[in-house]
Known about the structure:
Elements: H1 27-35, H2 61-72, E1 75-80, E2 86-92, E3 95-97, H3 119-122, H4 126-151, E4 154-163, E5 168-175, E6 181-189, E7 193-200, E8 205-212, E9 217-226, H5 242-247, H6 252-264, E10 266-267, E11 270-278, E12 287-298, E13 310-315, H7 317-325, H8 332-346
Helix pairs in contact: 2-4
Amino acid sequence: MKEYFFYGWERANVSPINENFFGIKDPRDLYDALSELWCVDTCAPRLRSEWTIDNPTLGQCSITAFLAQDIFGGEVYGIERNDGNFHCYNVVGDIVFDLTSEQFKGEQLPYEGNPKQLREVHFAKEEKKLRYELLRSLLFKRQDGLEDLTLSWEETKCEHLIKDRWIDLRRSAYRFPDGSEFSPFYSYSRRDYVVIVATDTEENYICVRQYRQGIGRVTTEFCAGGIERNDGNEYRQTGINPDKEKEVFENALSAAKRELLEETGYGSDEWEQLLSIPSNATIADNYAYIFSAKNCKRVSSQHLDSTEFLKVKLLSKTDIRERIKNGDFLQAVHVMAFLLERKEDND
């Protein structure tokens, strides 16, 4: 067994009660993971000037102990120090372990008769709660990355059924994590696009109505459009340096401003990017960039492309909610954009 130096490591045979952290089978695994994640940003502010990579557990005790409690259960106890602060450690059943004891460099700490520590008391300090959330998110990201290796598929064959300026439609075969293979899987590349949740000075949503051939009907939706490229293609190209690929993209915000003006005649000085997200991760590799534009004003007439036939429609928040409820606001990413924009406003 690998040798550790935190208190209680020899008996830390505790199984997780929370399976959300892939690969963490006992406190020793957690220590290994956190050793890569403890940093000055997760250190208690009063000790940050003393924190070094050679003493990574300094100032990390409470957030570490409560994170360990998330994973293994049990209780958190605290040893009162000379400065009145408590050094936190974990007790699960009859097993005591202290993942951050090394910061005391061999000092013998008393692990009996100490008071229980409550997270609501510790996290009443906003900075400590934020440090805990940061450490937790870093751990999730690390363990998810390890889990990805056990879940990823390997593409073994790819056939381009259609590859022109507009679309790259592919048929692929994949090898699964268990070694079996299956085909066909279909996927495609199309250009990235923007969706603009725009409101005017009276808080009406600026929407458009147009025909969508995929479902064969006229829809009500937000203004949206493709992000243009200067290389003659409509979609991202595989096998190209990502930095070179970025050079051919129109700036997403510039695209959003252009699309809103061309399709509706409205402009705004109050823009915010809410999110960028794959448009359909199951079958496509393009992204939707979601923007909000507030206090929009009519500044010009529409300037539509030859294939665009649409009407501008101003709708209230209630109007859109009713249309979503009744199945009359049909673009999935646009529904998400509306709900996200409303949440941002409420927050």
